[in-house]
Every structure is written in structure tokens, then in C-alpha cells.
Design a protein that fits this description.
Layout lengths: L8 E4 L5 H11 L3 E6 L13 E2 L2 E2 H7 L3 E5 L4 H11 L4 E4 L5 H5 L3 H7 L4 E6 L14 H7 L2 H4 L14 H24 L3 E6 H6 L7 H5 L18 E5 L5 E5 L3 H10 L6 H5 L7 H11 L4 H8 L6 E3 L3 H6 L1 H5 L3 E3 L5 E3 L23 H7 L4 H9 L3 E2 L9
Parallel strand pairs: 1-2, 1-6, 2-5, 6-7, 7-8
Antiparallel strand pairs: 3-4, 5-14, 9-10, 10-11, 12-13
Helix pairs in contact: 1-8
Amino acid sequence: MTMKLDGLRVLDLSLFLPGPALTQILADHGADVIKVEPPGEGEPNRHIGLREDEVSVFFRNTHRGKRSVCINLKSPEGRAALLKIAASVDVFVEAFRPGVVDRLGVGYRAIEAINPRIVYCSISAFGQYGPRRDLPAHDLATEALGGIVSLNLGGDGEPTLPHVPVADLSAALYAFGGVMMALYRREHSGRGDYLDVSMHDTVLASTPNVTGEVFAAKRPPVVKEFRSLGGSAFYRIYATGDRKHVVLGAQELKFVRNLLGELGRLDLLPLCERGPGPHQQPVIDFLQATFLTRTRDEWIEWFSGKDIGFAPVNDLREAFDEPQASARGMRLLDERGREHVGTPLKFSAEPGAPRLVLPRLGEHNRAVLTEVGFDAAAIDALYACGALADEHTAKNTH
């Protein structure tokens, strides 16, 4: 079975989430992703969160179908081996702080010199230039600086932690699009390119629907009054009688009319016709009281077949047990019965086919290095000098 990215070869030095999420998309659609892991514990994701069969679920969802090489980039021999691999690939991904790859001798200029067709992607918190370039940050800090945390208010009106890593994953998706654009252009120009992706940039780029007041009136939105942030009766979370929750998620007047009509309160329609804001409070009060009269599951049954934007608030276990998730292949089972998050890209021709196998640390050292011209003796020498490691030797490598 062929896939869209068959024949694409990717070298991935990134760790944690943004870079691995990008290369996971590539791997799920046929790319040969060679993951470079540091000696010792390897990719941190291997050890974060719950483990199943000695491997974390986090690692399973970000590294299936990839190949692992474990190289000590601080050794001259390890760096030379990496450059040899880099000469053979189409895409190079890294997510160190700016300047680190240059100090290691594997920055864009070094790779481009041996591989002019390379598409080199750097993902970092704040990008390769700007006053915050060298500051350490993960997802939360870039969301805070980018204004997202200020929009994510709890019931007490105080900012709360965003529980989905918006900056990490938006960076991965923008990087994916950028890599694809560069590969497309390379077909015409014959040359690759350098892509600088800032997580903070992608956070700001995720706000087109909430910047009306910001740009037109030069002030931040009042969150509790804003259309898509809770200021509309038909775009809100409501508690149910069993202390669970449901949402109304469509504000078009036809849906408003349908629900208010079903509930016998079309007299409230004019308040909704005026748009979001404090004047909708009577509608919110009515709906809050109404939703408390039934359990969440009773409301699911009540809304069935009605043309209204409604959904239950599922916990994450319920979300993956939903028939919709299974029907769309978003919950996959491997041969051992372990669950995986599926791929959301659904092509009618050459669809993705996630390979639900996980690489052991350094499992593919010999295979990958043989492909780029190393013989067995040369590979043995790399092990001997500490430039290579695997799951058996890595913990003794410093």
C-alpha cells in the first residue's frame, strides 16, 4: 500500500512535543523518520506519564513507526556520523534553543553545505531572532506571553492552566505546512530552504476570531462578554442535574430559535438577536436553570434528532470511546491491544497508515548507518568511542 510521503526521508533531532508531533504526521503518511535520541535516557517522552509494556503512552503517540538512532552529538565521531545521515535526507527537524545546533556543528549552513536540497526546520519558543530569542520556555510560557492564558478564565474569573498544549501543537501544524510548502517549491527550484517556527508566533496566529476589540478599539476583550468566550447564551458550558456538563456550541439564530421554541421561550429570542453581551444574562439564567433539571445523559437523549448545536462534555476516556472516534479511525489498536491516537488526515487515495510499532532506543543504529555507507567495523568503532549508544549501552555513556 502506497502513501503520500513514501520515499521522503526525515532526520528528527527534536524532543518533547512540537517536533515529534510534526514528524509523527510525516511518519503516519509514509515518511521514513529517523529519530536521533541522546545517550542516557533518550527521548524524554519515553518516561513521561503512565507506562504500558515498559513504554509511556506519550512516547507511543509521538514516535510510532519511526526509527531510532542514539548518537552522542558532543563527540566529533558522533557529529560526523550525523552529518553523513543528514546528507541522505530530505527534511531536518530540530527544536533546541537558538544557537545550539550551530555550536554542535549541525546548523542549517553546515547541513546545506552537504545537502543543498535540505528542508531544515527549527522549532523554538520565540524563534531565531527577537528580544526573547535566548529565553527558556515551554508551552505555558508562550501561551501566557501570547495572551491565550488571559482568555482562559475559570469560574472565579482568574486565569487557569490551558489543558491542551496550544503552542506546542499549533507550532507542529504550522511547521508541517511550512515543510510541505518548502518541499513543493523544491520540486521547481531544486533547492531546499530554512524554516524558523516560533511557538509564540503560532499562538498569536491562532487569534483571528478574538482580535476585533484588540485591533479596532486597542483594548483586550472582556472575556465574559465576548462572543466565543462565554458572552453568548448559545456558546457556553452548562451544568446538568448530575453535576456533569453539556455545551451549546452554535449561535446562529436558526439554532437559537429551534431550542427556545422547543423550550417554550421564544420571548427570549430578541435578546439573542442583539448579539453577545450582558443583555443575554436572562437567557443564560434560564438555560442554567433548565439544564439542571435533567442529567447529562437525559439531555443527550432529549437533544437527539434536534437541529441544535449541542454536545455533552465528555471526559477524555469517554471521548475516545465515542462511536464517532472509532468510525473516523481516531482510536487505533495495535496487535497487543494497546490504544493509539489516530491520524486526522483522511485522503481518499493513498490514505495514511500509522505503523503501530515503537522503536527501542538506538534500535536502528546499524541499519541507518549501513544505509549511508558505514561498514560493520566502522560502526563498532563508533560504539567503542562512545559516539553511538543503544538501550543496552546508553546508560553507561556520558
